[in-house]
Amino acid sequence: MVDRLVHSEANTRRIHIVEQCFGSSGQSLIKVGRVLVGEGVLTKLCRKKAKPRQFFLFNDALVYGNIVIDKKKYNKQHIIPLEDVKLQSLENDGPWKNGWQVISPKKSFAVFAATPTEKAEWMAHINKCIVDLLAKTNKMPATEHAAVWVPDGDASTCMHCLKTKFTPINRRVSFQPSLSCTQTCMSLMR
What sequence ranges are listed for the domain PH (predicted)? Predict the structure, then answer.
């Protein structure tokens, strides 16, 4: 399906519309060989709380941004090359259902779909785009990945070493890492 859309006028028009929604603050999304595979609103787990974000899946990138006016205006565009992405499904936990992690070298985060079907479709489409892209470019998947943000109140252990427990005395803010925990761990606590 992606191959026949590559040079289609409809695909170019759809990408141009997405580009216009981000306005002058966004980067150009028109690129030779790029196809808009799908789009939708997912809930992204941010540092303080979960927030709705508009996501666009291209055959080579995952793009998302803040919703200013639904389907008309977005800001704070983020572009993540799919060749660097790895997905990891999350178990349903309390209020967090239908989620998965998007893991990449520069930015990693958790997102949640409205239904199990929507989660399955998003993950299947993203994984297919990743497999196709890696096969086409003969690249290997990325091995280094950024830690996934967990809301401040929910982090009970160090997200780097996964050993240090946070307590009222050993708080996230004043945390001094153990020898087994690198400086990366300290920078994650800031």
Answer: 35-131
